[in-house]
Protein kinase domain-containing protein
Amino acid sequence: MAEMTDNTHAMDSAWRYVTKNISKKLEELENSEDSQYFLAIANEYRSLLAAASALLGNNNEDDDHQEFKLKFLDMTNQAECLSKRADEFQDKYFKYNIPYLGHRCFKDYLKDLQEFMTIWSKETEKGRRKGEKSLIEWMQQLNQSQRKTTFEEMKKVVIDLGTHISYVISDFLFVVTVLGDRINLMNNLDYFKAMIKLLNVEKMNDFKRVSYLFQFNRASCNQQSSLGVVHLEYNNIHGVISTQISSCKQLTHFHVTRNKLSGSLPASLVMLNNLIQFDISNNRFSGSLPDFSSISGLQVFLAENNQLGGEIPRFDFSNLKLFNVSNNNFTGSIPDVHGHFTANSFIGNPYLCGDPLPNECPPSQSNTLSEKSKDSYKSSVTMFVGYIVLGLIVAVDNDGDDSMYKSSFGGLTKSETSADDQSGFVSSSVLVVLTSPEVNGLKFEDLLRAPAEMIGRGKSGSLYKVLLGNNQIVAVKRIKDWDISSHEFKQRMQRLDKVKHPNVLPTLAFYSSKQEKLLVYEFQQNGNLFKFLHGTNMDYAFDWATRLEIAANIAEALAFMHQELKDDKIAHGNLKSSNILLNKNMEPCISEYGLMRVENSSPSKSSNAFFKDDVYGFGVILLELLTGNLVQHNGIDLTDWVQSVVREEWTVEVFDKALLSECASIERLVSLLQVAIQCVSRSPEARPSMNQVAAMINAIREEDEKSAVSFEPSQLD
Ligand SMILES: Nc1ncnc2c1ncn2[C@@H]1O[C@H](COP(=O)(O)OP(=O)(O)OP(=O)(O)O)[C@@H](O)[C@H]1O
């Protein structure tokens, strides 16, 4: 009897000791989100288990009593019941995890998890109390009856209980880890309290942030319906990618941009034959790139803003739709990209050389570009790759707390989205798809999920190249803080949609909130006129006939738009050579028509006055076509320069040498220059209308065509 009292007393004080310490630890936990605390608490629990085992183990009775067996059975049943629940939960988990583990899923997942944990914590608390009571009762009876017992069995029950529960704990910690600081840990403290009392300490001690993550995925990957898509971008995940990732054979999409992952990429990554999209950009990876060339279906490879080095492997660039390794430490010459990617994909690697970068590779290959040049590369183009979505909305909404909404680009907040959708997510209905068969059925979610690369940032906003699920590439313009009401914007877009011209790029879809506007366009692979006139691309002959044709087409398209939108007073508002895109047939397309509200720059009250800025913009484009010079060159304004040269009658000097050397007609060059000079008149009143400009350019074109015909050999005979 004395022994029983001692045992019970020891057990009791062990529980009290641990419980007290756990509460203390939990209090500390409230001020910290450090996972180390969990480990500490786990250790406390381990002491408890050890104490219980010692107590059980010391008792060497060998009488086998029926009643005790029943008690064991009861506890085993309880464990099985818990295990069944854990399995049900696992099923739910798989539902979300496979094939899609995405941002949105987390919200649903978390909701399910919380619901489950509410039941779970009640059950386990009951179970624990019951188990504890049974244990003590059992020990009392044991002591009284002096019977032999199967202590091993008892220990097994305790451990089993812990193991089953550990599935749920792992899941929960997994979510906490994945969501990093987005999850409000304090709201879930109760669940933790319930779990910590029952967790399997051995497993807890193995817990490491990311390796754990992949351990879990590996477990999933062993299933038939294995993990296909991982979207863990914009978290706070530290650690390395485990070599075990290669077990995820069905992995097609791997997106971990904007975390704190480090170390080198495991060579086993190349075993992921089904990989289509791989985005590890904006992390801290180092070492060299495995040879991804064997993955034939790879379409997206984004690794910019890391510390990766070595040579760039020979990717199948013709298959890749998005590729970026900028701002790393890659060395050597760039493999042949077959014109599919520009310098933007490679800048910021000081020891990288060759096309499409401007610096040629030295014959010796010992390229020693200075740090300074790295800086100048970096500053020359502002690059940014990310997910439009996550930039816009990160919604993990447990309790409606505003702090749960974070916007990486300082974008939408809950209050902004709530006008459209009270749930906090922007529903598909707010993406207005205009009458365009190209993106029929496009939903806002599609845009949110799609990988995107920022390819430019202008005065009106940023532009993203976005790869949609159906492999279509679109351009998405994101305009911030445009002082226009959603209603007015919508009306404007719908009006513009009714005015179609083959040389004006139509808007395929748009989205509007108070501070944010998104416009979707077809992506034009050939880039813009600015790039052709002032860039390094020498592949395309930009001769006089081509330039005149481009000028005539733009003039006609603008004249048409001005005419059609005269009453609405919607001008282009930001006409310049980077807004003239070249389609696949190298025909010019005016992009972003109507994205700027134009104030009347002319004293005249006539509606024509609204279009005079466009005429000026067009005049500058003509000057760029004629001179081959930049608008601002060495601090000198192109229009001032041309006007001063013309005033002093050195006209020929203003023209692009390439035009002079192909013997373009000086007469017609001068005629076009005169049109340009009228367009850039200081006074808006003095500028012609686009209709007049189009007529003048057409006359020059006709002259040009006539003279070309008159030089046809057949005519000369
Ligand atoms: N639909 C498109 N397809 C391909 N490239 C595009 C498309 N629309 C724009 N671009 C290119 O993306 C880059 C960034 O465009 P963006 O409009 O943001 O900047 P910008 O034209 O330089 O300035 P602004 O904001 O003043 O118009 C430019 O080089 C532009 O030519």
